[in-house]
Specification:
mainly alpha; 68% helix; 9 helices; 2 domains; MetI-like fold
Amino acid sequence: MTTTPTSAELAPAGEGGRSSARKVIAYSLLIGWALLMFVPFAWTIITSLKDRPEALSVTLPRSADFEAWAYTWQSIDPGLPQMIVSSLLLAAIVTASNLFLGSMAGYAFARLTFPGRDLLFVVVLATLMIPDQLRIVPVYQIMNFLGLINKNPTNYLSVILVLAVSATSIFLLRQYFLTIPRDLEEAAKIDGAG
């Protein structure tokens, strides 16, 4: 009977020290980068706790002043709590619609064959190259023409229509459906599913 050598027996001597040094360097760079990305957020929080004369100074606040937070919470119309609820509601609706519509379109591009499928998919992908800043004015004009723009802050229909489905969700869900073997679908059909 023969024995199979383990990876510890096959590893060359001195290799463990180099890989651990690489890990230390990599983690140090990643931690440094993460801290660098955290600086603007921390700066915003620290500055919001300063009073007006102190706001432009680089030093830490002498004492925490929550006046700006209270003003933001109470004085903005509509109030900050309503804005938070509106944002969460809008995010939930847009996420659900992207998941639903993106999965249907992704499945169609991955599994169904129809004339012009590849050309249509290229057109969908080409929309990813159009920056959002370039689309703002035309989308606003279309929504205004349709009468969906008004001063009511609870009118989410125009935002939901614009964000209901994205080329990114279609692409990602198509790629996911391509990873599912067709044999699995055929086995499900044999077993009586759809």
